[in-house]
Protein backbone atom coordinates (compact mmCIF):
# COMPACT_ATOMS: atom_id res chain seq x y z
CA UNK A 1 0.00 0.00 0.00
CA UNK A 2 2.93 2.32 0.72
CA UNK A 3 6.39 1.97 -0.78
CA UNK A 4 9.63 3.76 0.02
CA UNK A 5 12.44 4.16 -2.50
CA UNK A 6 15.84 5.46 -1.39
CA UNK A 7 18.57 6.93 -3.56
CA UNK A 8 21.85 8.80 -3.22
CA UNK A 9 24.17 6.29 -1.62
CA UNK A 10 27.67 5.58 -2.86
CA UNK A 11 31.38 5.69 -2.16
CA UNK A 12 32.88 8.85 -0.71
CA UNK A 13 36.21 9.79 0.84
CA UNK A 14 36.48 10.71 4.54
CA UNK A 15 35.42 14.31 5.03
CA UNK A 16 33.16 14.21 2.00
CA UNK A 17 29.41 14.64 1.66
CA UNK A 18 26.42 12.70 0.37
CA UNK A 19 22.72 13.44 0.19
CA UNK A 20 20.21 10.63 0.54
CA UNK A 21 16.61 10.89 -0.65
CA UNK A 22 13.59 8.73 0.10
CA UNK A 23 10.24 9.03 -1.66
CA UNK A 24 7.05 7.52 -0.25
CA UNK A 25 4.36 6.49 -2.72
CA UNK A 26 1.06 4.64 -2.72
CA UNK A 27 -2.37 5.33 -1.28
CA UNK A 28 -1.00 7.73 1.28
CA UNK A 29 -3.35 9.82 3.36
CA UNK A 30 -0.84 11.27 5.78
CA UNK A 31 2.84 10.69 6.58
CA UNK A 32 3.71 11.40 10.19
CA UNK A 33 7.28 10.56 11.21
CA UNK A 34 9.95 9.89 8.61
CA UNK A 35 13.44 8.79 9.48
CA UNK A 36 16.75 7.28 8.57
CA UNK A 37 18.37 4.28 10.20
CA UNK A 38 21.60 2.47 9.39
CA UNK A 39 23.08 -0.96 9.82
CA UNK A 40 26.79 -1.66 9.64
CA UNK A 41 28.15 -5.20 9.08
CA UNK A 42 27.85 -7.26 12.25
CA UNK A 43 25.88 -4.58 14.08
CA UNK A 44 22.24 -3.91 14.86
CA UNK A 45 20.20 -1.36 12.96
CA UNK A 46 20.39 2.01 14.70
CA UNK A 47 18.61 5.34 14.55
CA UNK A 48 20.30 8.11 12.59
CA UNK A 49 17.64 10.83 12.53
CA UNK A 50 13.89 11.37 12.48
CA UNK A 51 11.61 14.23 11.52
CA UNK A 52 7.93 14.76 12.23
CA UNK A 53 5.36 16.31 9.91
CA UNK A 54 5.82 19.48 11.95
CA UNK A 55 9.57 19.27 11.23
CA UNK A 56 10.66 18.46 14.76
CA UNK A 57 13.97 16.62 14.41
CA UNK A 58 15.90 14.10 16.47
CA UNK A 59 19.47 12.94 15.86
CA UNK A 60 21.75 10.22 17.14
CA UNK A 61 24.65 11.68 19.10
CA UNK A 62 27.12 10.21 16.60
CA UNK A 63 25.79 12.37 13.75
CA UNK A 64 24.79 15.60 15.50
CA UNK A 65 26.36 18.61 13.83
CA UNK A 66 27.29 16.63 10.70
CA UNK A 67 23.98 15.27 9.35
CA UNK A 68 20.80 17.21 8.59
CA UNK A 69 17.40 15.63 8.03
CA UNK A 70 14.68 17.51 6.14
CA UNK A 71 11.45 16.73 4.33
CA UNK A 72 9.15 17.97 1.62
CA UNK A 73 5.62 17.15 2.78
CA UNK A 74 4.08 17.95 -0.61
CA UNK A 75 6.31 15.32 -2.21
CA UNK A 76 6.28 12.81 0.69
CA UNK A 77 10.06 12.91 0.52
CA UNK A 78 12.69 12.89 3.25
CA UNK A 79 16.33 13.84 2.78
CA UNK A 80 19.52 13.22 4.73
CA UNK A 81 22.40 15.58 4.08
CA UNK A 82 25.58 13.96 5.37
CA UNK A 83 28.68 16.10 5.75
CA UNK A 84 32.12 15.44 7.25
CA UNK A 85 31.64 11.74 6.68
CA UNK A 86 33.77 9.28 8.62
CA UNK A 87 34.67 5.65 7.92
CA UNK A 88 32.45 4.65 10.85
CA UNK A 89 29.45 6.06 8.95
CA UNK A 90 29.80 3.18 6.50
CA UNK A 91 26.54 1.22 6.55
CA UNK A 92 23.38 0.41 4.68
CA UNK A 93 21.02 3.33 5.26
CA UNK A 94 17.30 2.59 5.50
CA UNK A 95 14.40 4.98 5.23
CA UNK A 96 11.35 4.52 7.45
CA UNK A 97 7.96 6.21 7.39
CA UNK A 98 4.76 5.92 9.37
CA UNK A 99 1.30 7.36 8.88
CA UNK A 100 -2.10 6.53 7.42
CA UNK A 101 -3.06 5.14 4.02
CA UNK A 102 -6.42 4.77 2.30
CA UNK A 103 -7.70 1.23 2.11
CA UNK A 104 -10.94 -0.16 0.72
CA UNK A 105 -12.38 -0.07 4.24
CA UNK A 106 -11.03 3.27 5.38
CA UNK A 107 -7.82 4.68 6.75
CA UNK A 108 -5.25 2.28 8.15
CA UNK A 109 -1.84 2.85 9.74
CA UNK A 110 1.40 1.98 8.00
CA UNK A 111 5.01 1.63 9.14
CA UNK A 112 7.16 0.96 6.11
CA UNK A 113 10.86 0.45 5.38
CA UNK A 114 12.79 1.08 2.21
CA UNK A 115 15.15 -1.44 0.65
CA UNK A 116 18.28 0.35 1.85
CA UNK A 117 21.11 2.18 0.13
CA UNK A 118 24.80 1.52 0.72
CA UNK A 119 27.03 4.32 1.99
CA UNK A 120 30.76 3.58 2.04
CA UNK A 121 33.28 6.06 3.44
CA UNK A 122 36.79 5.09 2.50
CA UNK A 123 39.96 6.51 1.03
Descriptive report:
The protein is mostly beta strands. 0% of the residues lie in helices and 63% in strands. The protein contains no helices and eleven strands. The protein has strands spanning 2-7, 10-12, 18-26, 28-39, 46-51, 57-59, 67-72, 77-82, 91-103, 106-113, 117-121. The strands form two sheets. Strands 2, 4, 5, 6, 9, 10 and 11 form a seven-stranded mixed beta sheet that branches. The chain has a four-stranded antiparallel beta sheet with strand order 1-3-8-7, with no helix packed on it. The radius of gyration is 15 Å and the shape is elongated. The N and C termini lie far apart (40 Å). The mean pLDDT is 96.
Any descriptors?
11 strands; elongated
Concise structural overview:
This protein has 123 residues and is mainly beta.
- Ranges where pLDDT stays below 50 over 5 or more residues in a row are none
Separation of termini?
Answer: 40 Å
How many distinct beta strands?
Answer: 11
Strand fraction? over 45%
Q: Secondary structure elements and their pairing?
A:
Layout lengths: L1 E6 L2 E3 L5 E9 L1 E12 L6 E6 L5 E3 L7 E6 L4 E6 L8 E13 L2 E8 L3 E5 L2
Parallel strand pairs: 2-11
Antiparallel strand pairs: 1-3, 3-8, 4-5, 4-9, 5-6, 7-8, 9-10, 9-11
Amino acid sequence: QVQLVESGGGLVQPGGSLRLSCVASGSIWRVNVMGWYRQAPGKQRELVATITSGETTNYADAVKGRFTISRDNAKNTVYLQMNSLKPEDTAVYYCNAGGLYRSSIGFKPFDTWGQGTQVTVSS
